[in-house]
Amino acid sequence: MKATRDAYGDALLELGRKYKDVVVLDADLAGSTRSLKFKEAFPDRFFDMGIAEANMVDVSAGLALCGKRPYASSFAVFITGRAFESVRQSVAYQKLPVVLCGSHGGVNVGEDGGSHQAVLDISLMRTLPNMKIVVPADYNEAYTAVLSTIKNDGPVYIRTSRAKSPVFTEGDFVFGRGKVLRKGKDVTLVACGFLVWYALEAAKLLEKEGISASLIDMATVKPIDEEMLYDFAKSTKRVVTIEEHTVLGGLGSAVAEFLGENYPVKMKRIGMPDVFGESGSCDDLLCKFGFNATGISMAVKEWLGKN
Amino acid sequence: MKEEMEELKKIAKEIRRDILLMLNVAGSGHVGGSLSCVEILVSLYFKVMNYDPRRPSDKDRDRFVLSKGHAVPALYAVLSRAGVFPRNMLWTLRKLGSPLQGHPDAKYLPGIEASTGSLAHGLSQACGMALAGKLDKNPFRVYCLVGDGEMDEGLVWEALLSASHYRLDNLCVVVDNNTLQIDGRCRDVMNIYPLEDKFKAFGLYTRSVDGHKFSELIGAFEEAKKNKGFPTVIIARTVKGKGVSFMEDKVEYHGVAPTDEELKKALEEIDEGD
Q1: Neighbours of B157 (CB within 10 A)
Q2: Which residues of chain B are within 8 Å of residue A74 when distances are taken between CB atoms?
């Protein structure tokens, strides 16, 4: 069990060793986002910007304009919400190679509650031209994804999680490509981030009920793997999206937008039903929103029964 | 020295003419705040900055960031006069496909250091550039022009806090203190005064000068170069719409272009002025 935020910290160390232009910024949350590891290893290339996320993002843009490769992190709510205008004007508009890492994505944050749970960050970042979005499923995928960002010539938003989760992928992340974790014939599940593991467990439960499900780990939410979506929609005719995020504007919307225009099939979006999060343990919250294996499998089974 | 000042004054006149001409051709844009910062920009590009117009991407160049991006006609006029791009491009301002966007866009026009327009982001980006200079031990300097109305933005103060914290003595901020913003007098819309005390409290080296006097501006810029350990803020007292009597200190000329008739009168005044 490892958290994707740990992968961010560890991968930054490798990037720091390989590339002297890599600089890291944080907004007084270095311990939580795990950028602290970089600070300890490369103190000269780490800048704590204090509790001022907007300025941190703009300063990152200024560093990028001078040839640096900035990695800026904070909680996902703050770096995408509070700093949105800086991300829009200075990072996305200028198409600068700034990597923004939002840790503490989704409700798995737990007890801190709705003010600290990012449930619309993917949606906010998706509307920005030039922005790419990665929501890795586990430690290995997050590690490879963070390393791969150095090859990008524009901005990337990476969402990591606070809670630990099983490490089950090989870490063979390729930008813009979905990864097929299971192949089935009745329905295709498309999931991202923390919930991919639960979707995998849900698929096993469904199999016991006689439902054969494909599962795609769609770590790159933007640009989304359209070819894979098309092929799987065509073969299973039923698609369910699963994300720890509002159903408005995130992975579910991205899939619906593409399929609606190119290969319309019946769809269901599992996610936050246009509500904020709240306090509770991670497990209790996953249960409440139907994000654990039982919740996902029941929702899929019920929907398939009607459609 | 005297000849040099006369030459700068001559350039300032040409810049004011070009601002008025390009805004008239464009049919829209911000004339008041463009005219108020002419001497500041002319001092920087024709005297103070280490800047080779033939090599606007040279890594060792001094950088100028126009945080009050709506005054970009003044910057375009200065860049073209310096030779970064041909003067005839000025007449494409705000036209579809032109690199001379309504607000500065670094993607399309060499010489524009940062895309700005949404206020305060230029200053924060300038802090990032100054930080990069420190990191690389490259002695280039970063200049940033902010408006006094822009001081309303909280981000300005986040930026100044960080500039002071990281001891960015390679950063020189200039406030175009023309005392007007769109809705009226700065002190009436949102009182930002006393400015000098605020800057000092933030740990910034602060000077106040006549923003239309080359000798005072250049003196303050040269003094700032010697500053060690503190960023500098120069409060430049200016007049909005400077150089055109019927535009001077008139909030109505914040964001309008001169009509043909106004242009004719304005150019006559510029030519006759000292």
Answers
A1: 16
A2: none
What are the DSSP calls for B163-205, one per residue? HHHTT-TTEEEEEEE-SEETTEEHHHHS----HHHHHHHTT-E
What are the sequence ranges of the domains in chain B? 2-272
As a whole number of angstroms, the distance between CA A156 and CA A293 comes to 30
Query: Which of A25, A65, A68 is best to mutate for the B interface (most B CBs within 10 A)?
Result: A65
Alpha-carbon distance of B252 to A29, in angstroms, equals 46
Task: Give the pairing of strands A179-182 and A213-217.
Answer: antiparallel
Which of the residues B125, B161, B168 would you substitute to probe the A interface, choosing the one with the greatest number of A C-beta atoms within 10 Å?
B125
What digits encode the pLDDT tens for the residues B8-54?
999 999 999 999 999 999 999 999 999 999 999 999 999 999 999 99
Average model confidence (pLDDT) for chain B? 97
Condensed to tens digits (0 to 9), the pLDDT of residues B151-184 reads 999 999 999 999 999 999 999 999 999 999 999 9
- Asked whether A140 and A171 are in contact (CB, 8 A), the reply is yes
Cα end-to-end distance, chain A, whole Å: 36
- pTM given for the model: 0.97
The answer to whether the CB of A72 falls within 8 A of the CB of A79 is yes
Q: Name A233's Cβ contacts closer than 8 Å, sequence gap at least 6.
A: A188, A239, A259, A263, A265
Q: How confident is the model at residue A91 (pLDDT cuts 50, 70, 90)?
A: very high
Query: Which residues in chain A have their CB less than 8 angstroms from residue B136's CB?
Result: 66
Question: How far lies B9's CA from each of B39, B72, B177, in Å?
Answer: 8, 20, 20
Chain A CB within 8 Å of residue B135 CB:
yes
pLDDT at B1 > cutoff 80: no
* Residues A70, A79: Cα–Cα separation, whole Å: 14
What is the C-alpha separation between A229 and A303, in angstroms, rounded?
20
| Superfamily name with CATH number, domain B2-272 | Thiamin diphosphate (ThDP)-binding fold, Pyr/PP domains (3.40.50.970)
Distance of CA B10 to the CA centre of its chain: 18
Q: What is the dihedral of CA B68, B72, B74, B77, to 10 degrees?
A: 160
**Is 0.90 exceeded by the ipTM?**
yes
For chain A, what is the radius of gyration of the CA atoms? 18
Closest residue of chain B to A44, computed from CA coordinates: B135
Residue A177: name the closest of A188, A192, A161 by CA: A192
Domains of chain A, each with CATH number or no CATH: 4-159 (3.40.50.970), 179-306 (3.40.50.920)
